[in-house]
Each structure stands twice: as C-alpha cells, then as structure tokens.
C-alpha cells in the first residue's frame, strides 16, 4: 500500500499554507501533531466526567472484545460479552490461554489506540478502521449481550456508518478526525486505567489480580500492572512516531515497510499555520 493514501487527509489541510512557521515539519505532520495534542488535552479534561461516558463505554467494549479475540485465537470459546453502564464489563469464556486472555484487556485497549492513530492518516485507511470497528460491534451482538452492550453496538454502528457516509458523499475530511480521536482517547484511557487499577493499588477484581490468582507469586498484581503500563506507553509513543514518519515528505512515494525502515524523523524547528484547518466539501 502506498503512503500517498496516508497523506491524503492531512494534505487537505495544507492547500494554502506556506513553508515558514513553527516546526520543521511538512503541513501534514504539523496538522497531525497539533490535532493529536488537542485530542489528548480533551481526553485529559473530560476524564472522569459525564461527557466522556460514551467513549468510556466504547473503550470498555474494545477491552472486552480484546479478551474475546485472544480467547478465539488461543482455541477457546466465548459465551458472553457484556458492557455495563458504569463502564465495567465482563467476557465469559471457556478454554484458551488464560495468561494471554487476561493480559489482552488493557493491552488490547492500547493496541486499538495504536491501530486507530496509525489508520487515521488516510481517508481510505480511516474508513477501513471505522468499518472494522462496526464489524466488531455487530459480532459482539452474537454473544449474549446485555442491554447496555446492545445499545452501545447499535449507537456506535449507526453513528460510525453515518460518519463514513458523510465522508464519502457530503463532506471531507471527517472520518479521519473521528478515528484519530478514538485512537487518542482509547490510548489515554488505557494508560490511566492501567495505572490506577493495577499499579497504584492491587484491585482483586482486576485482570492483573486474576493472573496472580492463576499463577501465584511469579505474577504479583502490581508488577504485572507496571509491565502493562510501560507497554501501553510504548505502544502509543510508537503509534505517534509511526504516523509522523508516514506523513513525512520522504515517505510520500514509498510503501509502509520501506518508509518505516528507511526514513529518519526530525522534530526540530517548529512551524505552523492555522490555515491548515480549512476544510473542504466533497
């Protein structure tokens, strides 16, 4: 796949910009960096408020669906996927590798964040990511969902499909904004939740404690939580660096793998122009 598709969204911002301003970045990279930190700030100030509840529930869904996915991959069977209105959730399963399944929840949240951040750069890739989310939501309805899970799946399936339709038939860019925000929010929540639920305290109901009960002193809950915490930070840092690299001028005519292994990034000499945010109609 050419990285040109990854540049499509961000270059839409830069039609009337010049080459002088804050960062030694191209226009696409500047737009990505500023939007990323705007979304990170929004995630921070809304954390723990009622405004964030819909996205907290979506993050809980990807947490539980990650448990289910690893269960399937390791040969187990999933019986039920539930999400509750207080942003808790449970996946009931049988078989599979419990060590990997228990670890898949929080690491899954962080991984979904990486997926969305990286896929947000191009119009087509963001649409693929949105479609994949819809497919997972609808799949969960086949596993004895509770009422909240049903409402969540219907709401986000319809809403995300609407964003896709608007993107391709009415107005662009849109779906890229949505997918990037999903990615930043999920990554932020994953890091914060791992810290407070598994590192700051040993919570008997946490995935880390489940590993401790299963394997004993070799998997102390806080040690497991700390490993997940570092992993989540590294995953999101890698996602940011990867998307930044894919949007570079050097990668414009390269494939993804060629770009990743043969490109250097430079974060020096900021430049920025607010006209990057001038959108356009389809």
Concise account of the structure shown:
The protein has 282 residues and is mainly alpha-helical. The chain is built from ten helices and four strands; from the N terminus they run H-H-H-E-E-H-H-H-E-H-H-H-H-E. 63% of the residues lie in helices and 6% in strands.
Write the layout of secondary structure elements.
Blueprint (H helix, E strand, L loop, with lengths): L3 H8 L15 H20 L6 H21 L3 E7 L5 E6 L3 H22 L3 H18 L6 H23 L1 E2 L2 H25 L7 H9 L5 H26 L9 H7 L17 E2 L1
Antiparallel strand pairs: 1-2, 3-4
Helix pairs in contact: 1-2, 2-7, 2-9, 3-4, 4-7, 4-8, 4-9, 5-6, 5-7, 7-9, 8-9
Structure characterization notes:
The chain is mainly alpha-helical. It contains ten helices and four strands. It has helices spanning 4-11, 27-46, 53-73, 98-119, 123-140, 147-169, 175-199, 207-215, 221-246, 256-262; strands at 77-83, 89-94, 171-172, 280-281. A two-stranded antiparallel sheet has the order 1-2. Strand 1 (77-83) and strand 2 (89-94) form a beta hairpin. Helix 2 packs antiparallel against helix 9 (221-246), helix 4 (98-119) packs parallel to helix 9 and helix 5 (123-140) packs antiparallel against helix 6 (147-169).
């Amino acid at each position: 796949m050419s990285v040109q598709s990854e540049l499509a969204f961000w270059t839409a911002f830069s039609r009337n910009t010049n080459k002088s301003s804050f960062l030694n970045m191209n226009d696409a990279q500047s737009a990505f960096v500023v939007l990323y930190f705007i979304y990170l700030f929004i995630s921070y100030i809304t954390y723990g408020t009622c405004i964030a509840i819909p996205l907290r529930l979506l993050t809980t869904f990807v947490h539980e669906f990650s448990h289910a996915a690893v269960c399937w991959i390791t040969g187990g069977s999933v019986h039920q996927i539930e999400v509750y209105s207080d942003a808790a959730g449970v996946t009931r399963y049988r078989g599979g590798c419990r060590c990997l399944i228990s670890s898949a929840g929080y690491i899954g949240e962080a991984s979904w964040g990486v997926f969305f951040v990286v896929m947000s750069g191009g119009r087509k890739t963001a649409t693929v990511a949105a479609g994949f989310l819809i497919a997972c939501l609808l799949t969960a309805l086949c596993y004895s969902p509770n009422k909240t899970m049903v409402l969540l799946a219907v709401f986000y399936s319809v809403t995300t499909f609407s964003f896709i339709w608007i993107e391709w038939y009415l107005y662009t860019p849109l779906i890229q904004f949505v997918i990037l925000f999903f990615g930043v929010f999920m990554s932020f929540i994953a890091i914060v939740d791992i810290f407070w639920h598994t590192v700051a305290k040993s919570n008997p109901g946490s995935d880390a404690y489940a590993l401790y009960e299963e394997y004993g002193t070799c998997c102390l809950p806080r040690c497991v939580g700390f490993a997940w915490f570092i992993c989540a930070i590294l995953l999101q840092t890698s996602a940011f660096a990867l998307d930044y690299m894919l949007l570079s001028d050097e990668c414009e005519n390269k494939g993804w793998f060629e770009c990743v292994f043969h490109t250097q990034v430079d974060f020096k000499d900021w430049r920025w122009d607010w006209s990057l945010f001038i959108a356009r109609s389809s």
